[in-house]
Design a protein that fits this description.
Radius of gyration: 25 Å
Largest sheet: 7 strands, mixed
CATH class of one domain: Alpha Beta
CATH topology of one domain: Rossmann fold
CATH superfamily of one domain: Crotonobetainyl-coa:carnitine coa-transferase, domain 1
Number of helices: 28
Distance between the termini: 26 Å
Structural class: alpha/beta
Length: 776
């Protein structure tokens, strides 16, 4: 979608895989199996590490078939060096990290080889579908099952039908990116004296980032996730995709000012006159009535008109390009977001979603502490100027891995995830009880500053001078205007790593666009991967882009931090959350680039699966997901459900699907899943977020813990989705109350006297003298 009058884009090239990248000097041995291990290896290669691939990877179930599968495999594996499959021989080379997976037996084989080789130095990263010691340890896994069991599939698809399984390898990419985060932390920690050597990540736990807040929120409030239909998700309305006169436009109006501006923009200001309509959940409950006005209104103008008009009114509207148009979009062309896939005739795939620009260098001589640190990032300091979901999730990974996080909130514009509509006063204060805020801010310290005052900005600069990393995801340009954005702080503090996490990046004609996680998904191309043929472009989540942006924000900072520890100085990082989602649908983007016709959509089915379906069971609203990837699995399923003569052919999928549904209809979900998995057929329950609290695997692993916090008392919180030497990082403290650590940080860390502190408090520079004003 070209935009008239858009300013030119001067972007840095994506961080590439040359030997001069920040990870140059690292050697990684990848034992290729599924997409997750190969994608994790790709992230190392892309930033300069040498990745040795032990034997040829298995191409089963990768991509979209034929030349598209070959092209996606080339995208995953470009730049890696093949070595002998024999692990003992491969381990004869000096390596820093070994990536093993995706079955527990494969990880165990690597552990045995490491022991036999006497290789004590390499860190072993095990990446499996499920935890290797829980009830699901012997289960067969696949992307469809993770979509079902992580709570993502439940709300996707029509309200009155079965849930729809999103397509593609997104769950494995999320698992690979999560594994990369903890592996990078471990490598940094090793240089600082951390002695851990075994990391375990499972793909199911990694994908709980999408639904953990919903699950824990249910335990606190009793609010359950309900299915509302295509492109409708609690609590946001409108928060979907509408047809324009020439295409599609993504629309999100969450706050009262956004809804009022939207109604005025489409020529129906009367919609916002009812005070009840200002609350997003009340609008959602009356969505059919509102859509009778919104749907025809958006059809009257082109998508480009709505995009510019809406963004000009501070409404998060998004372009919704199909997969063919996406790489041709001027904004993404200017940012270098796509590039030819080496080794293919014409395939195009996404580049890395962040750009690292060196800032003034400082050579910091790392000294090994007197005692080994208990967590790999112990001693790292992070200045957290984030709000919402994406930025706080990025800093939560640092907090879980041992870093000291100081979260700074503005006195008058505190983290909007504390409250975005409804009353702001009460007992307890509503902004201290929101489950979403609690989930992503554990293990942090929190302070309040008035960032518009000179004194407040001076304190931010002093905090930055003590920090290793500064992370922000304010509305584009907000902190730059105040003189405390990443570039300004990194320029004033040699060695500081600063990152901005804008939806569309910090450079380019759309860099100033306002966005939520829904906006990010709408703009990413993913909606053209999912849905039935006649559906509108179909979203998967109320804010799919947020947790993904958080993952890559953490990954980008760790890449730069490793580079700084090895003499490369500080950095300024420009991350685009939309580009982060390109990684999740890279298989579809690559496939689209190999053909002329638009990639076909077919609901839960997938071109490479012999069967991929959701079936209802005897329990009310209980579904199971089944995915058959191989003839052997088909044969096992046919024998189990009583049709052994049905040949494993794609054209027999509708018949097998009908027989599966008939078989499942008379069984309880757990019994059906156990029988299928026992026969070697990948199957699992389709969970709503609230179901995750009682999942046997998560309960056995102690994934849900209880924390005590002022205002709400005991509440459930999830743990980190990885283990270090068999142990999950601890829950040290719950999320901070507003300004809870003003004294310890400002007087303890910065050394302010009691009189100085009192004066700042009296002047309103610190404290909570005002409630939330206009939202970012």
């Amino acid at each position: 979608m070209a935009v008239a009058g858009a300013r030119s884009c001067r972007c840095l090239p994506p961080c590439g895989g040359s030997m001069s990248g920040p990870l140059a000097g690292l050697t990684v041995l990848e034992c290729p199996d599924g997409v997750a291990t190969r994608y994790c290896g790709r992230l190392f290669t892309a930033h300069g590490a040498t990745v040795l691939q032990a034997g040829p990877p298995d191409a089963t179930g990768v991509g979209y078939g034929g030349s598209a599968s070959a092209a996606y495999a080339a995208w995953l594996d470009h730049g890696k060096r093949p070595v002998a499959r024999d692990l003992r021989q491969a381990l004869g080379q000096a390596v820093d990290l070994v990536i093993a997976g995706q079955r527990p037996a494969d990880v165990a084989a690597v552990d045995a080889a490491l022991g036999a080789a006497g290789a004590s130095n390499p860190i072993r990263l095990g990446l499996t579908w499920f935890a290797p010691d829980g009830p699901y340890a012997g289960w067969g896994g696949c992307d469809a099952l993770i979509q079902a069991m992580s709570g993502v599939a439940y709300a996707t698809g029509p309200k009155d039908g079965a849930p729809m399984l999103p397509r593609g390898h997104a769950p494995q990419v999320v698992g690979g990116a999560t594994a990369f985060i903890v592996a990078m932390a471990a490598l940094i920690g090793r240089d600082a004296g951390w002695r851990g050597r075994r990391i375990d990540v499972n793909i199911l736990d990694a994908n709980l980032c999408f639904s953990e807040s919903g699950a824990a929120g249910l335990a606190l409030t009793g609010d359950k996730v309900v299915r509302r239909g295509v492109n409708r998700f609690t609590p946001t309305f409108p928060g979907g995709i509408y047809q324009a006169s020439d295409g599609w436009i993504g629309v999100t109006a969450l706050t009262p000012p956004q809804w009022t501006a939207l109604c005025d923009m489409i020529g129906h200001p009367e919609l916002a006159r009812d005070p009840a309509s200002l609350v997003t959940l009340q609008r959602l409950n009356a969505a059919d009535a509102f859509d009778r006005v919104l749907v025809p209104a958006f059809k009257t103008r082109p998508a480009a008109y709505w995009l510019i008009e809406g963004q000009g009114r501070r409404i998060p509207l998004a372009p919704v390009p199909d997969l063919a148009a996406l790489p041709r979009t001027p904004h993404w062309q200017g940012r270098g977001s796509f590039a030819p896939v080496p080794g293919t005739a014409s395939a195009v795939g996404p580049t890395q979603p962040f750009r690292i620009e060196p800032s003034p260098a400082v050579q910091s001589a790392a000294t090994e502490p007197a005692t080994a640190p208990d967590l790999p990032l112990r001693g790292v300091r992070v200045l957290d100027l984030t709000m919402g979901w994406a930025g706080p999730l990025a800093t939560r990974h640092f907090a879980d891995l041992g870093a000291d996080i100081v979260k700074v909130e503005s006195c008058t514009h505190f983290d909007w995830w504390r409250a975005f509509d409804g009353p702001m006063d009460g007992d307890p204060p509503p902004y201290e009880t929101r489950p979403s805020f609690l989930m992503v801010n554990r293990n942090k310290r929190g302070i309040t500053l008035d960032l518009k005052t000179d004194a407040g900005k001076a304190l931010v600069r002093r905090l930055a001078a003590r920090a290793d990393i500064m992370i922000e995801n304010y509305a584009p340009g907000t902190l730059d205007k105040l003189g405390i954005g990443p570039k300004a702080l990194a320029g004033a503090t040699p060695g500081l790593i600063g990152i901005s996490m804008g939806a569309f990046g910090a450079a380019g004609p759309w860099s100033g666009f306002r966005a939520y996680g829904s906006t990010v998904e709408q703009a990413s191309g993913l909606p053209f991967v999912n849905g039935e043929p006649d559906d509108p472009p179909t979203m998967q989540h109320v804010a799919y882009g947020d947790p993904i942006g958080g993952l890559y924000g953490a990954a980008a900072c760790l890449v730069a931090l490793y580079g700084r520890r090895h003499g490369r100085g500080g950095a300024v990082i420009d991350l685009s959350q939309v580009e982060c989602l390109f990684q999740l649908c890279a298989d579809a983007i690559v496939a689209q680039s190999t053909q002329t016709d638009l990639l076909a959509r077919s609901g839960s089915r997938h071109p490479l699966s012999l069967l991929r379906a959701v079936a209802g069971t005897v329990a009310p609203a209980a579904w199971i997901a089944v995915s058959v990837e191989t003839p052997a699995q088909w044969t096992a399923l046919a024998a189990l459900i009583g049709c052994p003569g049905l040949a494993p052919l794609k054209e027999n999928e509708p018949d097998m699907e009908a027989r599966l549904r008939a078989w499942a209809a008379s069984r309880e979900a757990r019994d059906a899943v156990d029988r299928l998995q026992g026969a070697g057929v990948p199957a699992g329950p389709v969970y709503a977020a609230q179901d995750l609290l009682a999942d046997p695997q998560l309960v056995a692993a102690g994934f849900w813990r209880r924390a005590e916090r002022r205002f709400i008392g005991t509440h459930i919180t999830p743990l980190a989705p990885y283990r270090l030497d068999g142990r999950t990082p601890p829950l040290v403290c719950p999320s901070p109350t507003l300004g809870e650590h003003n004294g310890p940080v400002l007087m303890g860390d910065l050394g302010l006297s009691r009189n100085e502190f009192a004066a700042l408090e009296a002047d309103g520079v610190i404290g909570t003298r005002a409630v939330m004003g206009s939202l970012q």
